[in-house]
Amino acid sequence: MRLPLRAKIMALTAIPLAALVASALVLVDRGVSGRTERVLREDLTRAAEVFEDMIAARTGEWEIASAVIVRDPRFFSVLTLPHTAADPVFRATVAGVAQDFHRIAHPDVFEVADLLGQPVASVGPVPLEPASRDPLVTEALAGRAVRRVVVQRGGHVLLVATPVVVGGRIVGALLMGQEVGAAMAQRLQQLTASDITFVADREVTRSTLESADAREGAVGLAHATLGEVRQVAGPGGRWFAMARALPFTVAGSGHAYVLQRSFDRETAFLHDVRTHLAELGLVLLLVVIGASVWISAHITSPIQQLVSAAHAMEQGRWDTPIDRARADEMGQLASSFDDMRSRQRDYVQSLEDVTRAKSEFIAVASHELRTPITVIRGWANLLMDPRVAHDTARGPQALEAILRSTDQLERIAIDATRMADAGDARGSGAADVQPTHLTPVLERATMEAASDAPARHVATRVRVDLDAEHVRVDSARLAQAVRALVQNGIRFTPDGGSVDVIATTQGNDLWVRVRDTGIGLDDDMKRRLSRSVIAPRDASHHHTPRGLEFNVAGLGFGLALVRKVAEAHGGRLVIDGEVGRGSEFSLHLPGACARANKEAA
Does the model's pTM come out above 0.90? Predict the structure, then answer.
């Protein structure tokens, strides 16, 4: 089945666009899901880095604070006082100094141990258990500053143990720290939007998870996903989870923290996205269908116009409307087609004019040939009569009649030559340009044209500008063209008028204007003369002029000759005039003055 062009265009535009829309929707859905998963993994990794940076930063703060405190004379001097382990005055003095420094640093843990490792002051809100304190005090009394996370009373505590040195001698230890509790967990949740659970020996110490089942699931994740991000199914749906060993704990002690992000909660928006994508896809599908209909109509409408115009041309109708207003390629095609149609119409009309003119010429010539032939034959027969042969009075009369008849035959022959040239679609070839003095050429052509009208009283003048005197033209053909234009001016100029031949230059171009004071041209006639090969005329009222009689046209081949001469020089014929104010026919010959002026110089 043969589909019309519009249906093909709709199919070729709608199907790929619909497939493109569907593919885009699928890719967007996959891209959003994949992007969400990738973002969750990256966020968990960043959350772990943020938490460990928080622990390291807080530890650094306590180390700096401890180092400053143990070097303060008010602090270390009290540890050098003589005392016994149970001396209440000594313990009260140390506790008072510890209270002063605690008010400055505000740690959760602030304990002071003496040289023997016995606690002599504990002023923080979180007291340490011996199991948590003693290993750190031992290392500090050995001269080593220690950072460690310990577990006591169901929670993790970050501790810094610093030796107190006086005069190069260790006199005690200072323990400062902070509980790793709910405040730190909530702060991390706010920063990273991740839930965190602290695990110690399979026991949850702190967690931002609200569900007990979720907390129990985090205990198993603490060991199963250690060091990597995994997607797991658990209470409340799917999760992305990552577990790491808690910083500053003893390796293998089972202390860890678990970061979790709910995949279902994070991707809940995908349901809305898919719904909106489906709605968008439906809208886009409708838009695609509408666009394909519009595109097909937008493309095929001018084509249909051209097809209709082509069919009309076959039927001889040349004025079928074509839209040339579009600024795209279709507009250019329409403009080119319209111009081609105009040229074709002019060409066909010119062929019709030539054919009609040839028919008219044959009819006129066959009629007019009879007169001179009859005259010549009559006088010839008369001169052959012995009684007239020696009649000296009739001899000149016979010769004059024969000469007039031969002149008439010559004019008919010239018109026949012009007719053949006008109807020759191949033109007459390029001009044989030679350096020429223009004034003699124009004067001779004007004189010959005026001699064809001995009974007319029309003045002819020639004026050549100095810059136009030396030119490169085909002088013979230019003289023919100027003679034809002057003859035309004499025909349509009443007695008492004038015909002027004016040669001027514009740059290197030569302009030869033949201007008359005759009846002039209206706009319709100028348009017809500019577009026709042969001057249009009414053949039914034809009258062959014998002496360029006023307002009696010839066969119309003169302008065709002039136009071919202009084109042979690479130029053109320009026609202008107004009714009642005369007419002007201008030959524009580009570049005719350039080399001629140089050679003349």
Answer: no
